[in-house]
Write a structure and sequence with these properties.
The complex is a heterodimer.
Chain A: E1 14-20, H1 24-31, E2 36-39, H2 43-48, E3 51-57, E4 66-68, E5 72-76, H3 81-85, H4 88-92, H5 97-103, H6 108-111, H7 116-122, H8 128-134, E6 138-142, E7 146-149, H9 150-155, E8 164-170, E9 175-181, E10 191-198, E11 201-207, E12 214-215, H10 217-225, H11 231-244, H12 255-273, H13 280-284
Parallel strand pairs in A: 1-3, 2-3
Antiparallel strand pairs in A: 4-5, 5-8, 6-7, 6-8, 9-10, 10-11, 11-12
Chain B: E1 2-7, E2 10-15, H1 22-28, E3 47-50, E4 53-56, E5 69-71, H2 77-90, H3 99-111, H4 118-125, H5 136-149
Parallel strand pairs in B: 1-5
Antiparallel strand pairs in B: 1-2, 3-4, 3-5
Classes of the chains: A alpha+beta, B alpha+beta.
Chain lengths: 285, 150
């Protein structure tokens, strides 16, 4: 997960005071104070090397429940990834891509620590979960700013001083595709991609570019206008996607390698979502 | 600050620092079966059970363990002994450094019920790095253990 070894005591988070929040209002009041930070799962926080005056623990606030209605699935922000991936209904949601994305994050042990809220709020470029959520109908519920579409939250710039309470996913009849490309089972992604198709059309998100997942909206429009998905259209779709998604290089892969991966997996996603009815080339190249 | 935990069935109170992680709390109290591997949440060697769920103890804040049940390999002597035998049969044992953490995850997997196939076992145990084996013999031993129990 982290290539370089830590020397003991070095770069590990320092928390001077530990505050177990007694209510959301209490947590929010604490958060306003200089040097405070929310402790969600605490996994990434540990390696951040941050110095935190007061760590605010949300564990006692009952934010770790999953509730299901006819139309929605609501996931508490403090729900661990492993709890989510073992939930039967979430296994069926959008063809199970959220579970697939979560299942590719480290091992079960770490997934018993990491929370979905912590993963979303941290907005890591390498997040597989955010990529999958981007092609679903997702609303985030914050303590202060209230209901916020995921897309709006991801576009917000600057320091973030609010507390995520829950994630609401609207159930839809949809087919979906997710792929994480990584060098080993435990490694961060070199690239990840998610695509969904429902009554409103296609959604495509590409992440770990290495920056955070973005939606490819021009590409989506092109797909939604198309009457049939044939070879010519697929080529156009790929060109459009590569035109609107910016890739960069880091030690995991170069920008051009990421572009090649994106080409292949956009093709495969389209093939997958159309039950293999596009040209044979789509699934195999 | 103090935490009260049930450690391998016994009530214990530990004095901890706000930024202490369980691996340090436990090792400071002579639970040296909890081994420090990568110390960066990656290798699974320091795995323990908190409320019967496997977690890397280097990544679990001690403050959060207050009022919870903690199990180290000392708390599962039967599982550990049987697994050790099966690991021996399969030649899966080499240095043994990763065994306590692995045994605890297998114990948790066993408690889930249904006998899993090799793919499910692998999915559950990914994250337990072993630098000696190629995992094949380990998975065989774990499968034999779980089949024996069902």
């Amino acid at each position: 997960m982290v290539a370089q070894c830590l020397r003991r005591g070095e770069r590990i988070v320092k928390i001077k005071h530990y505050h177990k929040a007694t209510s959301m209002a209490d947590a929010y009041e604490q958060l306003k104070k200089e040097g405070s930070a929310i402790v969600a799962g605490g996994a990434w926080l540990r390696l951040s090397g941050r110095v935190i005056e007061t760590g605010i623990d949300l564990a006692g606030l009952g934010l770790d429940a999953i509730s299901v209605t006819e139309e929605t699935i609501t996931i508490g922000a403090m729900t661990t990834l492993h709890t989510i991936e073992t939930h039967p209904e979430i296994n069926r949601l959008y063809d199970g891509i959220l579970v697939q994305a979560i299942g590719s994050v480290m091992g079960v042990g770490l997934r018993n620590v990491v929370t979905i809220g912590g993963n979303i709020v941290a907005r890591h470029g390498f997040s597989d979960i955010i990529t999958a959520l981007q092609v679903m109908d997702v609303t985030l519920c914050f303590h202060e700013q209230g209901e916020t579409p995921l897309k709006t939250f991801l576009a917000q710039k600057g320091a973030f001083n609010d507390i995520l309470e829950k994630i609401v996913v609207r159930k839809r009849k949809a087919s979906a595709y997710f792929k994480k490309v990584s060098k080993t089972a435990l490694d961060f992604p070199v690239l990840n991609i998610a695509m969904s198709k429902d009554q409103d059309g296609y959604k495509l998100a590409v992440g770990a570019r290495p920056s955070i997942a973005i939606r490819a909206e021009k590409t989506e429009k092109l797909l939604n206008k198309a009457k049939t998905i044939d070879d010519a259209l697929i080529e156009k779709v790929i060109d459009t996607a590569l035109g609107e998604i910016r890739f960069n290089s880091n030690h995991r892969g170069s920008a051009s390698y990421r572009q090649s991966l994106a080409k292949t997996y956009i093709r495969r996603a389209l093939f997958d979502l159309n039950d293999g009815e596009t040209s044979r080339k789509a699934g195999q190249s | 600050m103090n935490i009260r935990v049930r450690l391998n069935g016994l009530e214990r109170t530990f004095t901890i620092k706000p930024d202490e992680f369980l691996i340090d709390t436990l090792r400071n109290h002579h639970l040296v079966s909890v081994r420090r591997g990568c110390d960066t949440s990656s290798c699974g060697v320091c795995t323990i059970l908190v409320d019967d769920k496997p977690v890397p103890s280097c990544t679990y804040l001690s403050a959060r363990a207050d009022k919870r049940h903690i199990t180290t390999v000392e708390g599962i002597p039967n599982t550990a002994a049987r697994l050790a035998g099966l690991f021996g049969n399969e030649g899966a044992d080499q240095c043994g450094f990763c065994n306590p953490g692995l045994a605890l995850s297998v114990h948790a997997l066993e408690k889930l019920g249904a006998t899993p196939d090799a793919a499910t076992i692998r999915h559950y145990l990914v994250g337990h790095l072993c630098r000696c084996s190629g995992y094949v013999s380990q998975i065989k031993a774990v499968k034999a253990y779980l089949e024996e129990k069902s």
